[in-house]
Amino acid sequence: MGFIETTVASFVQLIPVTLAQSLILSFVVLGIMIPFRMLSFPDLTSEGAFPLGGCVCGVLLTAGASPLTAIAVALVAGFVAGCCTAFIHLRFRIHTLLAGILMMTMLYSVNLRIMGRSNLSVFGTSSVFDWVPGLQAGFPASKIVVAGIVVVIVFVLLDLFFTTEKGTAMRAVGANPDMAEAQGINVWAATIGGVGMASAFTATGGALMVQSQGFADVNMGLGILINGLAALMIGEAITGKQTVLRQLLAPFVGAVVYYQLVSLCLAAGMPPPDLKLATGLFVLAMLALPSLKRSRGPAMARESFRE
After folding, report:
1. Predicted model pTM
2. CB–CB of 43/195 below 8 Å?
3. Residue 7 confidence (pLDDT) above 90
4. 130 CB burial (10 A radius; 0-12, 13-18, 19+)
5. Which of 167, 214, 198, 218 is nearest to 78 (CA)?
6. Which of 251, 145, 147 is nearest to 198 (CA)?
7. In this structure, how many other beta carbons lie within 10 angstroms of the beta carbon of residue 204?
8. I need a labelling partner for 169 at 20 to 30 A (CA). Which of 15, 210, 253, 307 fits?
9. Which residues pair with 119 in a beta bridge?
10. Residue 164: how many CB atoms within 10 A of its CB?
11. How far apart are CA 281 and CA 276, in angstroms?
12. Pairing relation of β-strands 215-217 and 119-121?
């Protein structure tokens, strides 16, 4: 069997696993997109909120709590973390990126305090992936079904929310906070609520990941931000970002496509340590592409004029 056949065979075998993982991690991409696109609030809290949700979920599962309760409490914990980031920015006039870095750094210690150790096994405890009738618990099929259902529910609810008055107000704050305030919109409430909601989704992704993989770790969020950003760039390149619907589709589409690309790279024999470098270069290329297109346009126009 040649190299191409071996790569394709390995890639096909990995599709169910990476699809389940990408659906779970799409909540992280969603948590990156909402502040970035809806609020013009570049935020780094996701790298701390993801393990926060996982640590809270892991502790509750080992204490005998139900999987849904663990996810709900993790969601609330992530919401509080996001609200704190937005409050630091608004109250102390600290740049959004620095506020996110501060919160991400502090959450590392918080996560250690929550678990009392650096990692925690939850093997043997129940999870939401065990509740699918007719499918074997713990296998990719059950994870795909559960994560897919949650993705659809979240997508529909967000699409409805951003068409309401509060959702429109949040988008108005992201477009022009001064004008939004002049129209009577509470900028503080919209910003804190939006960033809190984004971190809540990220923490939910962390809780689902812990129930999927069977353990929680304080370092499970390391590098998740750059992966999420890469997925978002891919998603926006595919769906566009001209409407709210397209913006909401981008995180989910991008997560699925990105992790399939990662799977293809692994199947082709790329060493795992090189994936971070490849991801960083890809994000750099996606961010630089619009600028290169704009600079190329005037150059081509000048050449045509000279001819």
Report:
1. 0.91
2. yes
3. no
4. middle
5. 198
6. 251
7. 27
8. 253
9. 217
10. 10
11. 9
12. antiparallel
Alpha carbons 212 and 21: distance in angstroms, whole number: 9
> Which tokens sit at 26?
């799409």
CA 98 to chain centre: 19
Greater model confidence, 25 or 301: 25
Burial class (CB in 10 A: 0-12, 13-18, 19+), 33: buried
**Token output for 273:** 């340590």
- Integer Cα distance of 297 and 289 in angstroms: 12
Residues 6 or more apart whose Cβ sits within 8 Å of residue 140: 16, 17, 19, 20
**What angle do the packed helices 67-92 and 187-213 form, to 10 degrees?**
140
Alpha carbons 175 and 162: distance in angstroms, whole number? 14
Helix (H) or strand (E) holding 58: helix 46-62
Asked whether residue 155 carries a pLDDT value surpassing 80, the answer given is yes
Kindly report, residue by residue over 64-111, the tens digit of the pLDDT.
999 999 999 999 999 999 999 999 999 999 999 999 999 999 999 999
- pLDDT band with cut points at 50, 70 and 90 for residue 276: confident
Three-point CA angle 137, 142, 143, nearest 5°: 110
What is the signed CA dihedral for 53, 56, 62, 67, rounded to 10 degrees?
-50
Beta bridge partners of residue 217, listed in sequence order: 119
Measured distance CA(86)–CA(187) in Å, rounded: 11
Residue ranges per structural domain of the chain: 14-220
